[in-house]
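PT: before anyone asks, these are the final sequences, not the draft ones from last week. 225 residues across everything. Please model them as a single complex and drop the result in this thread when it's through.
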Amino acid sequence: DAGITQSPRHKVTETGTPVTLRCHQTENHRYMYWYRQDPGHGLRLIHYSYGVKDTDKGEVSDGYSVSRSKTEDFLLTLESATSSQTSVYFCAISESDSNYGYTFGSGTRLTVV
Amino acid sequence: GDSVTQMEGPVTLSEEACLTINCTYTATGYPSLFWYVQYPGEGLQLLLKATKADDKGSNKGFEATYRKETTSFHLEKGSVQVSDSAVYFCALSGGSNYKLTFGKGTLLTVNP
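LR: through. Structure below.
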């Protein structure tokens, strides 16, 4: 299996607190992505990265920021968590050619109370 | 923009029944097409893919053919098993930023 891990796997946090989710890969893939999965919406892209310090917004980026200071790590930060950000978050990686598809992490279940 | 529409579930079948999950897409250019599967409590796994028109992707008894004329990529299996119970996502990749666009997913439940 491709080396991609997400941490934490589960987290409960309070409204208004900052939260950071981590995605770590050992495949040296250039592209990394953060998605959220919600019932009735499938997967929606939050942010993605196409290299160290190179990131861009996806379709649901409001309230989220990302950073990528090393090839292997892609961090997703909720600056001030809200209940609407309760979701399952997936990280994915891909090689330079998307014809290979993505490899996904196991997900982080985040609950904002 | 790019979009993927797949049949809404849930789909419930008996073991050994035939499966078809419809998927159609809208995209500019010539996208690559994928089916992903998500088992309970897990992340998504690539099931099969097709990168050009008339290509057939296949894996684990599942098949899908890239039909450019009908902009479709329907997932089929001749005889499903209980272990095939999962959520199935159709997706496409197009453009230069290597992003995947997903359908909303179809929950399949196979009963013994």
